[in-house]
Amino acid sequence: MAGFVRGVALDLDGTLTEGHVFSQSALRETDRLRDGGLAAVLVTGRIAGELEAAFPGVCDHFDAVVAENGAVMLVDGEEIGLAEPIEDVLAGELMDLGISFRRGRVLLAADAGDAGVIVSAAGRLGLDCQVVRNRGELMVLPAGVSKGTGLLVALDELGISPHNVVAVGDAENDLALLQAAGVGVAVANAVPSVREHADLVLGERDGEGVAALLTGPIVTGEAAVQPVRRRVAVGRFDDGTAATVPAWPANVLVCGESGAGKSYIAGLLIEQWIIAAYTVLVIDMEGDHVDLERLHKTIVVEGQPSASELLSLLRHQSLSVVLDVSGLESRAKLEYLRTLPPVIEAERAAWGLPHWIVIDEAHATLAEGGIAADVFRPSDRGYCLVTYHPEQLCAEATAAIDVTITARSAYPSISNAPRSGGEATLRETGSPERPFAVVARRTAHVRHRHKYVVVALPEHRWFRFRRPDGHVVQTARNVEEFERILTQADINVIEHHLLRGDFSRWLLGTVQDRDLAAAVGAIERNAIARRAGGLLSARERVSHEVARRYALSGSEEHGERAAATQHDGALYKRLQRVGARSQELGAQTRALAAQYRQTQLRLASSTRKHGVSVTNHHEREEPRPAEIQAHGEEPDVKRV
After folding, report:
1. Tens of pLDDT along 278-327?
2. Is 11 a catalytic residue?
3. With contact defined as beta carbons under 8 Å apart, do 234 and 428 qualify?
4. Residue 561 lies in a domain
5. Which of 128, 380, 439, 556 is deepest in the core (most CB within 10 A)?
6. pLDDT-above-90 percentage for the chain
7. What is the overall mean pLDDT for the chain?
8. Which of 11, 170, 199, 360 is catalytic?
9. Same-domain status, 151 and 182
């Protein structure tokens, strides 16, 4: 945890002061903390002008001051209003009512005993404002303004994440301050509501408590606080309660057999952390997490960006980064990753970012003697290790794990709408392992997108398209080539493989995608049942499933091709019906012709017997070719 607390936010009255006297011990420790590179922010409800009059030079001990309960900020000697002032009409109304108050740049300050009168006056005037209590005083502020909102502005100015800040307070108006910070602390003399909502309650009062905190293990990084309020949900236990894990700082291990859903669960955790405004660096070995780019302030970087480029994204732009190295060949990938750990650890020590480092296929980098085993510091927390070989992790990484999630069943790889499904188990240090049902993800999970799509498989795992006589006509070295050849191959080749179940067998045995293999297997069985009538549609359905599964480029064309195939299949069926009807009519015609010939034979026999000449007046003599040419007529053609 060393280096992760980058600043403190301190209330003034009742926190840094003992009565109306500034705590010299707290002030001394604040100066020492700043000398060590950490930032200090004073957050007070006092009016800025009154603050300097009461405590001359106090602002010089802080990197920024948030005054008027979040409505005003003082930084680098400049006073900046963070909200519009309370309207003069309310001030005039209170004067008419004889209510005593003080006016700041934005707020109105009054006695808490006048709260009812002030609220009624603001209501009559239809003003959008709020009344905030601070022990025996109250402040009239614009709606939505609090110590919490002011702190966020000040931290943004200083370039510090609120998750890297410890805030301390004592009164009701400090609740928002404690809520905005990564860790909220109450001094021993805090009001009951603040003590109840704080992540930590100090054993000492006001300035003494603050001084002890600033020199203690939480700020120095020797101890970690994992606020319950910041835990993120990953599913539900059998009893209906939420299955949650710490939002930070902690170390999480996600493990399970190949295809059991490790990447799905890891992606779910990353989503939750990013949504909660933690910065995450994902070292994506297989291209599993590229769809996380859809999340706010998250980008995917491919290839081998320089360390300075990565650090700029993480620190200066506060982005989460998915570093997709799946397109690199194995040797280049490991050589590149070898350069990152020292730089990343130095950045975390100096700035506390990124909050999380997610390492996919962690056994490749954090095994005993691995390329990062001696540099990465899992004992500092903020690591999520994903592996199907947890037994191969180095001893330091294994010993530092706080939470273990074991995937137990397969998850959907990609869909038009993310779905929930599957089961896993959750075990925290000191607690028993419990099964839970995993909640739905917000982004789709593209399973091993590059590993199986663009990177060539070993030669013995290539798919060879063959004619029925066994002759190889084309070879697919990966899924992308498989899908492309599938759409172009001769229909006899497709029939050969469909009837043998070769497609689903390859997808299961080589690609190791059970869901896709099952879907394609159903298509194969259907094609066998329908044979010729189903071959055209079967080819397109297999191609569509593969492209949709792995988000292949150009997959949007599959909908059009599938529609065209459906039309062709319907036309093929109609032609089959027409052909069958034609055969039926032909048979009927031949039968009638046979009957006619038999009748003619009987008539001819009867004529010869009785010497009578019989002429059929419906018949006429066929014209000879010469006559046709002479008259320019077509022969009489009888059509059936």
Report:
1. 999 999 988 888 888 888 889 888 888 888 788 888 876 678 999 998 88
2. yes
3. no
4. no
5. 380
6. 43
7. 81
8. 11
9. yes
Same domain, 333 and 386: yes
Q: What is the CA radius of gyration of the chain?
A: 39
Does residue 283 fall inside a structural domain? yes
Domain identity same for 267 and 348: yes
Write out the residue range of the structural domain in which residue 50 sits: 1-83+145-225
- Tokens for 384? 């999520």
Q: In the structure, what pLDDT confidence band is assigned to residue 534 with cuts at 50, 70 and 90?
A: low
Nearest to 523, CA basis, from 543, 546, 548, 541: 541
pTM here? 0.69
The tens digit of pLDDT for each residue in 319-366 reads: 899 999 888 887 888 888 888 888 888 888 888 889 999 998 888 888
CATH number of domain containing 191: 3.40.50.1000
Estimate to the nearest angstrom the gap between the alpha carbon of 56 and the chain centroid.
Answer: 50
Handedness of CA 146, 148, 153, 155 (dihedral sign): positive
In this structure, the strands spanning 108-111 and 434-438 are unpaired
The pair of structure tokens assigned to 631 is 């008259």
Co-location of 153 and 23 in the same domain:
yes
Final residue belonging to a domain, choices 426, 446, 466: 446
In this structure, the answer to whether residues 630 and 534 fall within a common structural domain is: no
In total, how many domains does the chain have? 5
Look-up of token digits 């006016």: 103
Cα separation, 251 vs 471, in Å, equals 54
Which one, of 167, 154, 219, 200, lies nearest residue 15 by Cα? 167
- Looking at the structure, tell me whether residues 302 and 442 fall in a common domain: yes
Cα-Cα end-to-end distance for the chain: 91
* CA nearest neighbour of 551 among 448, 409, 461: 448
Length of the chain: 640
Look-up of token digits 């014209």:
623
Note the maximum CA span of the chain. Answer: 149
- Token look-up 């936010």 returns 9
Beta bridge partners of 436: 237, 424
Same domain, 383 and 323: yes
